[in-house]
Amino acid sequence: AQSVTQLDSQVPVFEEAPVELRCNYSSSVSVYLFWYVQYPNQGLQLLLKYLSGSTLVESINGFEAEFNKSQTSFHLRKPSVHISDTAEYFCAVSGFKAAGNKLTFGGGTRVLVKP
Amino acid sequence: DTGVSQDPRHKITKRGQNVTFRCDPISEHNRLYWYRQTLGQGPEFLTYFQNEAQLEKSRLLSDRFSAERPKGSFSTLEIQRTEQGDSAMYLCASSFPAGTVDEQYFGPGTRLTVT
User: Fold this and answer.
1) What is the pLDDT of residues B77-86, one digit of tens each?
2) Cα–Cα distance between A92 and A23 in angstroms, integer?
3) Which residues contact A20 (CB under 8 A, 6 or more apart)?
4) Which of A51, A102, A108 sits opposite B33 (nearest CB)?
5) How close B82 comes to chain A (CA, Å)?
6) DSSP 3-state helix, strand, coil percentages of chain A (rounded to 5)?
7) Inter-chain CB proximity B40 and A107 less than 8 Å
8) A47-105: per-residue pLDDT in tens?
């Protein structure tokens, strides 16, 4: 069984300031890790994913996340946010293919970027 | 192809009525997933199909819920004798497993309100 904890339900942040969204997971099997973003009135979109290899993964719009196996964490960061980053962000894990690829999500972190 | 589509986008029904939702996946995707998202929570896995075979069902999927994917293309999720606790966003995702993990693409969801 897997579980995901997102430690902050809401994060207010000023435009151009940095932001970090925390995610911790637990699992009895090896996992893949994902961050999804949900803009208002839209579906979930994949932001970035960790499968293997380098523990630092980046998205095309400036977000990055670092996999830390010892701390079972996959925190998401952006050094300078824009108003358009206002959205809800979900961390998720998935077991290896043999264990099924259903996603287990955290509760979400709502980011509100203020001008 | 414009992505995963879901119909209807919104549904209001009275307690005790039956409802059916439809999901059309991306055309070449052979896996299809259903999730449920209640207010303020992350999505929770309900069930998934590979082609027309339903391979896994969550314990969240009570006997009142049934899902089908008769020809391995679109899928329907039916809820019989709806209850107020069924009010939620129902999300559909599809994927085409390639390599070690399949990337799930989500539809916009169907928001169900049971009065």
Assistant:
1) 999 999 999 9
2) 9
3) A75, A76, A77
4) A102
5) 24
6) 5, 55, 40
7) yes
8) 999 887 888 888 888 999 999 989 999 999 999 999 999 999 999 998 776 555 789 99
DSSP letter string over B1-58?
Answer: ----EEE-SEEEE-TT--EEEEEE--TT--EEEEEEE-TTS--EEEEEEETTEEEEE-
Q: Which parts of chain B register pLDDT below 50? A: none
- Sequence length of chain B is 115
Partner-chain residue, chosen from B41, B43, B101, that has the shortest CB–CB distance to A101: B101
State which amino acid sits at residue A12: P
Q: CB–CB of A43 and B109 under 8 A?
A: yes
Pull the structure tokens for residue B51: 């082609």
Q: Which of B74, B56, B76 minimizes the C-alpha distance to B66?
A: B76
Alpha-carbon span A54 to A66, nearest angstrom: 9
Contact yes or no for B31 and A101 at CB 8 A: yes
Give B35's strand partners: B45, B91
Q: Using DSSP, state whether A98 is helix, strand or coil.
A: helix
**Beta-carbon contacts of residue A65 (< 8 Å; ≥ 6 apart):** A33, A35, A48, A50, A56, A57, A74, A75, A76, A77
Length of chain A: 115
